[in-house]
Amino acid sequence: MSSVIVFGPTGGVASVAALTAREHGAKVFLAMRDTQKQIPGLSTELEQQGGFERIQADLANPDSVAAAVKASGAKRAFTYLAFGAPDHMRATFTAMKSAGIEFVVFLSSYTIAGDPKDVTPAELIAYLHAQAEIVLDEVFGDENYVALRPGGFATNLLRYKKGIAAGEVRIWAPDFQFDCITPGDMGRVGGTILVQGPKNGQKKVYLYGPRLIPQGDAIVTIGKLVGKDVKLTIIDEEEALEQSLAHGFPKPLAEYMIQTFASTSNEVTERAHYQVGVDNVELYTGKPSTKFEDWVEANKELFDA
Ligand SMILES: NC(=O)c1ccc[n+]([C@@H]2O[C@H](COP(=O)([O-])OP(=O)(O)OC[C@H]3O[C@@H](n4cnc5c(N)ncnc54)[C@H](OP(=O)(O)O)[C@@H]3O)[C@@H](O)[C@H]2O)c1
Asked: Does the 3-151+182-208+270-289 domain belong in CATH 3.40.50.720?
């Protein structure tokens, strides 16, 4: 049985990637900052039956990453971007490689439309993910890692759950469209690639939900499905900034997102490889990309305020 190590398994995508890797027959090590934390979808019983093993590691601490990899004996790793790493994770990826990792699945972003080297620092979110991909190229070589490049997450809408429960959502840029890719689809693709490698020689795997939905419409839809009549109130830039800061976003990121959401360049044609990204979900999981309404229906409890 091959061993894999999943960094950040408490996360929405990585938790599903870990479960999927197990389903594909791998022994799975769960590398966590806090080994006592609950992992979504993994009960204590399932964890024991499945032979999962928890191990301490912080992606911001390369020595802890090397120690976890060595203790696991894993040759394959799933990882998030560690935001705030001044070296764009170079020391962390170098530590992974020296400790024995030969192949990495990295959760990147669709905001990189092509070559990571073409992304400018002004494109904040794309830039941070692109720099990490460039480091992966240099440390592992482009044959030895896969960058998942998912679209806008359905889970982004959880930010509005209090407003949905209260029947009024105060929102900036309700027309901004999300494809609403689900953590389940991303995690199942990530876990499959972690164990089996990519298909068709793909190195950058775009992943999208099946339809672009204006976020205001998505909120009203959630309301309908959870039994709430939701009114949308459009707010100004100042309140949008306050709202984002209150959700814990660093100010530069909050400002960047506010500008992006206000831009009109949000059509399907602006999503890199949109249809390929929708089809990739089925290519790797055998099931079509999950419809937003189906995801809400199956996850109503997440919207309990
Ligand atoms: N939101 C979007 O629309 C979007 C679009 C494209 C790409 N993305 C990418 O997807 C990511 C979010 O994925 P998600 O929803 O699955 O995330 P999530 O549920 O917020 O979980 C993030 C995970 O990362 C772990 N983590 C963070 N810093 C760490 C560190 N220094 N060392 C070890 N683990 C660390 C967290 O562990 P703890 O439990 O210890 O906190 C947690 O398990 C974004 O950060 C971005 O890179 C997002």
From this structure: yes
pLDDT in tens, 194-234: 999 999 999 999 999 999 999 999 999 999 999 999 999 99
**pLDDT tens digits, one per residue of 60-80:** 999 999 999 999 999 999 999
> Ligand 1 mean position to 107 CA, how many Å?
9
Q: Which residues contact 36 (CB under 8 A, 6 or more apart)?
A: none
> Which residue's C-alpha comes closest to atom 24 of ligand 1?
8
Distance CA 154, CA 225 (A): 15
Name which of 174, 180, 133, 172 is nearest 254 in CA terms.
172
Ligand 1 centroid distance, CA of 156 (Å): 12
Indicate the DSSP class of residue 146. E
